[in-house]
Amino acid sequence: MIRVAVFGAAGRMGATVCGAIADADDLDLVAAVDPVAAGRMIGDVVGIAGRSIVGPAALVEVAADAHGFEATGVQVAVDFTVASSARQNLAWCAENGVHAVCGTTGLSLDDRAELQRLFGDANAPNCVQAANFSIGAALMMRCAEICAPYIEGVEIIELHHDRKRDAPSGTALETVRRIETSRREHTTTHASLAADPTEQVMLVGTRGGVSEEGVRVHSVRLPGLVAHQEVIFGSLGETLTIRHDSFDRVSFMPGVLLAVRRVGETPGLTIGLESLLGF
Ligand code: NAD
User: Fold this and answer.
1) Under a CB-based contact definition with an 8 Å cutoff, are residues 88 and 33 in contact?
2) Which of 3, 7, 97, 212 is 20 to 30 A off residue 236, Cα-Cα?
3) Element housing 141 (H / E)
4) Which atom of ligand 1 lies closest to the CA of 14?
5) Is the peptide bond before 35 cis (omega within 30 degrees of 0)?
6) CB contact set of 188 (below 8 Å; sequence gap of 6+)
7) Averaged pLDDT for residues 179-200
8) pLDDT over 70 for what percent of the chain?
9) Which of 185, 187, 190, 207 lies closest to 198, judged by CA?
10) Atom of ligand 1 nearest to the CA of 133
11) pTM value > 0.85
12) Band of pLDDT at residue 69, cut at 50, 70 and 90
């Protein structure tokens, strides 16, 4: 059994992760942290988020912080909080020999460098960090990477629920990075794209945010949505659209559980699910 703790246990993702860990035969939910639910039993807390936990895991008491975690013998900690908290929680994991699985978004490239420093040492525990734990989303980003050297025109539309705090989404930023890296690493075979034709912007922001290398990203926030993204490539007389939809947060669970099971044997910092999935 792998002994697992969850940071952000009362949140939408954290509650779903607690339920998935409690349901897995080879994983043991031994600790849960969330200041908004401190002192309550995790079984009651995830119930409010529409999830359920049966069995002894339901009786785990939610802690306000990681104080006293050592006594639970936790081996892997999962973080779905906010960027400012994730920085502290991941530093705690590194200092306390606990492997980390982090899905929190809003982390910058500087944060990534810090994670590399914290988890890169041979004696340090390991960390898997992914902006999106859905296997379908990992495949969407891989497809975008493959297309990037062949079609220059590309814009991304990401659509999320109305409680999301960061924009654009971590998935959109990661997709931009991969498209740009793929273009740099491969000889391009596409015709050069004309400059953006927009001369008059009648509504500020209408053309979206633009990356340093010119990829535009548009963020939609609406109730009813979960996590969705379209990558639209455009060329002479044709477009190619890659679309991924997460309709429920359970879509992230196979990827989270894969990372929890594999992080102990995956040295250092691993970004994204791709290497765990073998592509
Ligand atoms: P949420 O607001 O529902 O939950 C966040 C929870 O973290 C809250 O309950 C909050 O009280 C708690 N928290 C804050 N600081 C904490 C701390 N120091 N220790 C412990 N808990 C703390 O948010 P959410 O929708 O569950 O999303 C959480 C994060 O996961 C966001 O960054 C979101 O973008 C990201 N996310 C990632 C994926 C992925 O696949 N990687 C998928 C969905 C969401």
Assistant:
1) no
2) 212
3) helix 135-147
4) 26
5) no
6) 149, 150, 152
7) 86
8) 100
9) 207
10) 40
11) yes
12) confident
189's CB contacts (< 8 A; 6+ apart) are: 149, 150
Query: Burial, 39: exposed, middle or buried (Cβ in 10 Å; 0-12, 13-18, 19+)?
Result: exposed
Say which residue the tokens 């990203």 belong to. Answer: 217
Q: Which one, of 134, 135, 233, lies nearest residue 182 by Cα?
A: 233
Two tokens at 36? Answer: 């908004």
* CA–CA dist 229, 255 (Å, integer): 18
The encoded tokens of residue 219 equal: 């963020």
DSSP state of 248: S
Ligand 1 contact, 233 CB (< 6 A)? no
Q: Is 160 a catalytic residue?
A: yes
For residues 5 and 77, the answer to whether their CB atoms sit within 8 Å is yes
E-assigned strands of the chain?
Answer: 2-7, 27-33, 62-63, 76-79, 99-102, 127-129, 153-160, 209-210, 216-221, 227-235, 238-246, 269-271
Burial class for 169, CB neighbours closer than 10 Å (0-12, 13-18, 19+): buried
Cβ of 92 closer than 6 Å to ligand 1, yes or no, is no
What is the DSSP secondary-structure string of 175-234? HHHHHHHHHHHS---SPPPPPP-----SSTTTT-EE-TTS-EEEEEE-TT--EEEEEEEE
